[in-house]
What we know:
Two copies of one chain form a homodimer.
Chain A: H1 4-17, H2 27-34, H3 38-50, E1 54-57, E2 63-66, H4 75-82, H5 110-127
The structure holds a DNA duplex.
Amino acid sequence: MLSKKTKYGLKALTYLAVKEQNVPVQIAEIAKNENISQKFLESILLDLRKTGFLGSKKGKGGGYYLIKRPGDILMTDVMRVLEGPIAMVPCVSLNFYEKCTDCPDEVTCSVNRLMLQVRDANLEVYRNNTLADILV
Amino acid sequence: MLSKKTKYGLKALTYLAVKEQNVPVQIAEIAKNENISQKFLESILLDLRKTGFLGSKKGKGGGYYLIKRPGDILMTDVMRVLEGPIAMVPCVSLNFYEKCTDCPDEVTCSVNRLMLQVRDANLEVYRNNTLADILV
DNA sequence: TGAAAATCCTATTAAATCGATAGGGTATAG
DNA sequence: CTATACCCTATCGATTTAATAGGATTTTCA
């Protein structure tokens, strides 16, 4: 299942993508328009700012805005920040590799074999989509 | 993340696949060889039996065995039983469709748009793999 | 016929995760 | 200097997951 964090994060990013770049939009506005708990969204946007997707501005007239153009924001990067590793098991993860403790040999593991294909298929999708591509 | 249930279930299926068909293998043997909690595996195999993948035999010399040939067991079916829906959001699910309560329109939803592609990519993988294909 | 073997079944538990909330701190515009 | 809006940490309740417990049922076979 896709986490609500990821869902909300994606919705917020697309909301900002159709706005003027570098013009701050307030959390409250996004939350209201996208039916998201404001406090929860707050923490998600904070995350997206710390990871370099968003800029922010405090005080009156403040808010969040996209730092890069939608066409330059890859879904691979967004998904890794919001949802975590793209691989379904650590032993096939590119960025978060870990050996299985229970499994003696990855080469002869059927789970590994299947999940490698799944990882590649998902990567292909995320690499072929920027934020601009999923706008209406 | 792939659940342990799915991981263990897949390992058990492949274990049975390399054995003679219709010859029962005991839970204890599979659990020991694949480093799986026996009791947990018990409930998983029970599930796989109820959903038509395995047959069972009680008493001495009993155990579980594959009902179909590995080449006839599609990963789409296995994954749906063990892991649940293949889609990451219900609004793009083929077998478990549900409308989002928060989202006014699927057609203009960026999450929907992205997750449709992800679903199709995953389906493609699972449809192209039978149990026979992921054996060593 | 009875004891051992093995699956069947339900309930419970411990830990982790998730989604949401609380409550104040900090910077900035005007 | 005050209102605004982001910043930050902590906590909570619900759900899910992985594992365990404990016995019921069926079958084999001596």
